[in-house]
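Design job #97: recover the sequence.
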C-alpha cells in the first residue's frame, strides 16, 4: 500500500511539473504580488518567449543622462513566474545611475561598451567600489544601495539581469527630494541645510 502511495505521489508531482512548464503572463489581467496569472496554454506562442525591445539605444536626454529599458514581465510575459528578467542600460557621456536599490532582487551587470565606475554599500556601510570595462561583470546583492557612473569619454552600454520578473527600483535622491516632504523635516533627518534642500528639490521636482 505504501509503495502504491509513493508511486501515485511521484506520478502526480511529475504530471504537475509538466503542466507548469511555464506561466506566460496574461497582461490583460491585473498583476498581483506573485505576478500575472497564466495565459491559457492554447493561446501561448513562441512570440511570448522572445523580446526584441532591447536592440536600439534608449533616449538619454534626461537629468541623469541614463536610460533603463526593461524586459520585465510587463514587457516580456514569457519571464512571468520564472524569477528572472533583464534590462538594457544606456549611458551618455557623464551619465550617472543614481544611488538606488532593488528591495526584492539581486542584480548582475555586464558591460558591453565603455567604462563604468560602479559600487555598492553593504549593511555595515562598507563600500565596494571598482572600475568596469567591456566584458566585465559585477553583482549587486539584493536590497543594497548601488550606483553606476560613466567615466569614459564616450557613451556606455550595459545589460543587467535580475532575480525577479518585476524588480522594483528605489532611487534615494527621488525618494528624498521629488516629493512634498517639508524642508524642515528633511533638515532634521538629513543634516542638510535649508538652501541645499531647496536646491535639490528644485533639481528633482519636489515642493514644500
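Job complete. Output follows.
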Amino acid at each position: 500500500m505504501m509503495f502504491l502511495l509513493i508511486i501515485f505521489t511521484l506520478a502526480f508531482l511529475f504530471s504537475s511539473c509538466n503542466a507548469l512548464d511555464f506561466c506566460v503572463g496574461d497582461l490583460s489581467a491585473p498583476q498581483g504580488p506573485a505576478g500575472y496569472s497564466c495565459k491559457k496554454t492554447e493561446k501561448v506562442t513562441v512570440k511570448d518567449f522572445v523580446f526584441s525591445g532591447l536592440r536600439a539605444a534608449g533616449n538619454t536626454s534626461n537629468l541623469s543622462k541614463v536610460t533603463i529599458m526593461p524586459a520585465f514581465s510587463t514587457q516580456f510575459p514569457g519571464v512571468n513566474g520564472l524569477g528572472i528578467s533583464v534590462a538594457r542600460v544606456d549611458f551618455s557621456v557623464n551619465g550617472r545611475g543614481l544611488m538606488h536599490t532593488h528591495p526584492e532582487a539581486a542584480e548582475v551587470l555586464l558591460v558591453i561598451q565603455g567604462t563604468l565606475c560602479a559600487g555598492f554599500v553593504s549593511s555595515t556601510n562598507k563600500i565596494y567600489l571598482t572600475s568596469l570595462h567591456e566584458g566585465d561583470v559585477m553583482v549587486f546583492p539584493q536590497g543594497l544601495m548601488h550606483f553606476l557612473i560613466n567615466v569614459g569619454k564616450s557613451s556606455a552600454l550595459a545589460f543587467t539581469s535580475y532575480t525577479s520578473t518585476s524588480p522594483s527600483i528605489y532611487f534615494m535622491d527621488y525618494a528624498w527630494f521629488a516629493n512634498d516632504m517639508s524642508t524642515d523635516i528633511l533638515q532634521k533627518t538629513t543634516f542638510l541645510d535649508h538652501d541645499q534642500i531647496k536646491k535639490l528639490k528644485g533639481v528633482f521636482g519636489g515642493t514644500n
